[in-house]
Design a protein that fits this description.
The chain is an alpha/beta fold and 294 residues long. 45% of the residues lie in helices and 12% in strands. The structure holds NADP nicotinamide-adenine-dinucleotide phosphate (NAP).
C-alpha cells in the first residue's frame, strides 16, 4: 500500500514548517502548497535530506487568489487521486486595508476564502481516501471576531484594523470547520480546527509596533514553533480522534468552546452560502446525488 497523502499549506515558515518536518519524518507523501516556490523548493530539499522521504512535493498556491487555488487543485489532482490529510495552516496578518485579486479584503481572502475553496474542491480525493481528516489552524482570536457576509463585497476599509480583520478571518475558519463537519457527517471525513497557542513566528511581521510590543511583554508565555505545531499534529494523527469531528481544540489539545457565532447554525449557513456564491458554486456540498450514494 502506498503512503498516505497529506497536503499542507504555508510551510515556508513557523508552525507549518515544523508540522511539515514531522509529517515528512512520519513517511507521508507530502504536498506543500506555498506561494513562494523558491523557498518551498529549498525546504523540500532540506526535508528530503533530513527524513530520507523522497515523496515530498511543492504546489504553487497563493490562497488569496481564487484562480490560484483552482489551479493548485487541478495540479494536485493530476498528480494524486487520494488525499488522506488536509492541513489548512497558512495564515497572514496585515496593517492596512488591501484588496485581493478577487476584490475582497486581503486577510479574509487568504485566511478564510482561499482555504474554504481549497477544502471544497478537494472533496473527491478526500472521499477516495476516507477515513480522511481536515485540520484547520484557526486562533483563539476568533472569539473576538465578527463577520457579516452582506457587507464583504462592498467594504471600503474605513477604520480598518488589521487585528479585527485577522479575528474575522479566523472566525471564518472555525465556522467553516463546523459546517464541513456537519455536511460531511457519515462520509468518513472529519473536520476539526485549533488554536496553536501564542507562537513565536513571522505572523506579526507586518503588523503594528503595538502588537509587536504586546508580544514582547508576554514573551515568557510564547511557545516555540515545535510546541505550536503540537496541536496540528495531534489532530492530524492521533488515533483516538478518528471519530471526532466539528471540534475546536486549544493549545493543550483539549476541546474548547468556539465563539457563539460559530455555534449558530444559521450564521454558519449564511457564510457558507455567501462563500459558495462568491466562488460561483452551488451551496450544496457534497452535492445531493453524491450524498445519496455515500
Ligand atoms: N503564531 C501565532 O501565535 C499564531 C496564533 C494563532 C494562530 N496562528 C495561525 O497559525 C498559522 C501559521 O502561522 P504562523 O504563526 O506559523 O505564521 P508564519 O510563520 O507567518 O507562517 C505563515 C505561513 O502562511 C503562508 N502564507 C501567508 N499568506 C499566504 C497566501 N496568501 N498564500 C499561501 N500561503 C500564505 C506564509 O507564506 P510566506 O512565507 O510566503 O509568507 C507562511 O508559510 C496561521 O493560520 C496563523 O493564523 C498563529
Amino acid at each position: 500500500m502506498s503512503a498516505p497523502v497529506c497536503l499542507i499549506t504555508g510551510t515556508t515558515s513557523g508552525i507549518g514548517r515544523e508540522t511539515a518536518q514531522a509529517l515528512a519524518a512520519d513517511g507521508y507523501q507530502l504536498v506543500m502548497a506555498c506561494r513562494d516556490e523558491i523557498r518551498a523548493g529549498e525546504l523540500r530539499r532540506a526535508l528530503i535530506e533530513e527524513s530520507g522521504n523522497e515523496a515530498i512535493d511543492v504546489l504553487r498556491c497563493d490562497l488569496s487568489s481564487l484562480a490560484s487555488v483552482r489551479r493548485a487543485v487541478a495540479e494536485f489532482r493530476s498528480r494524486h487521486d487520494r488525499l488522506d490529510l488536509l492541513i489548512n495552516n497558512a495564515g497572514t496578518m496585515t496593517t492596512r486595508f488591501q484588496r485581493s485579486a478577487d476584490g475582497l479584503e486581503l486577510t479574509l481572502a487568504a485566511n478564510y476564502l482561499g482555504p474554504w475553496l481549497l477544502t471544497r474542491l478537494l472533496l473527491d480525493p478526500l472521499l477516495a481516501a476516507a477515513p480522511a481528516r481536515i485540520v484547520t489552524v484557526a486562533s483563539a482570536v476568533h472569539l473576538r471576531g465578527s463577520i457579516d457576509p452582506t457587507t464583504l463585497r462592498t467594504e471600503q476599509g474605513r477604520g480598518y484594523s488589521g487585528l479585527a480583520a485577522y479575528a474575522r478571518s479566523k472566525l471564518g475558519n472555525v465556522m467553516a470547520t463546523l459546517s464541513q463537519a456537519e455536511k460531511l457527517e457519515g462520509t468518513g471525513i472529519t473536520a476539526n480546527c485549533l488554536h496553536p497557542g501564542v507562537v513565536s513566528t513571522n505572523i506579526t511581521g507586518d503588523t503594528n509596533a503595538l502588537l509587536r510590543l504586546g508580544m514582547k511583554l508576554i514573551s515568557p508565555l510564547i511557545l516555540s514553533e515545535a510546541r505550536g505545531a503540537a496541536t496540528s499534529l495531534h489532530l492530524a494523527r492521533d488515533p483516538s480522534l478518528s471519530g471526532t469531528s466539528g471540534c475546536y481544540f486549544d493549545e493543550h489539545q483539549a476541546i474548547a468552546e468556539p465563539a457563539e457565532t460559530a455555534r449558530d447554525r444559521g450564521e454558519r449557513e449564511a457564510l457558507w452560502v455567501w462563500s459558495s456564491r462568491f466562488c460561483d458554486l452551488p451551496p450544496a456540498w457534497p452535492d445531493t446525488a453524491r450524498r445519496k450514494n455515500t
